[in-house]
Design goal:
The chain is mainly alpha-helical. The chain has 3 domains: about 55 residues, Winged helix-like DNA-binding domain superfamily/Winged helix DNA-binding domain (Arc Repressor Mutant, subunit A), CATH 1.10.10.10; about 30 residues, no CATH class; about 25 residues. The protein has 6 helices and 2 strands. β1 and β2 form a beta hairpin. The chain is extended. The mean pLDDT is about 90.
Length: about 120
């Protein structure tokens, strides 16, 4: 998916070539993965001649959000707090970074409130 997101539209061969150094794969493997991604709704394809050209249907941040939501549900009893505490305990995120994120959330909430006030909601 990283290659599809980076390039916007890409063929199976272009993906195989780009991944050749770090993760060599047979052409059939790349095509199988792309077919499965299309079945799951992550990519779509158009046809140019006899070549399928794939493009993303979801943004990377959406997929990341869905993956984290699954982790929270499966491993953290549905609790975002449990996830964040674990990340702090394992030093994946610093308390300072959490404060920065909290400030961003507060700023976004204030902007949203202001938007609703200006609309007369």
């Amino acid at each position: 998916m990283r290659v599809v997101w980076e390039r916007g539209s890409v063929t199976a061969e272009q993906i195989r070539v780009q991944l050749a150094r770090s993760r060599p794969m047979k052409d059939s493997t790349v095509r199988t993965v792309l077919r499965r991604l299309e079945e799951k709704g992550y990519v779509k394809h158009t046809t140019e001649g006899r070549t399928f050209v794939f493009s993303p249907t979801v943004a990377s941040h959406r997929v990341a959000t869905e993956a984290v939501r699954g982790i929270i549900d499966r491993f953290c009893d549905g609790s975002v707090e449990n996830l964040l505490v674990g990340m702090i305990d394992d030093e994946l995120i610093t308390p300072e970074k959490l404060k920065q994120l909290a400030a961003r959330v507060a700023k976004a909430e204030a902007a949203e409130s202001e938007k609703h006030r200006s609309k007369g909601d």
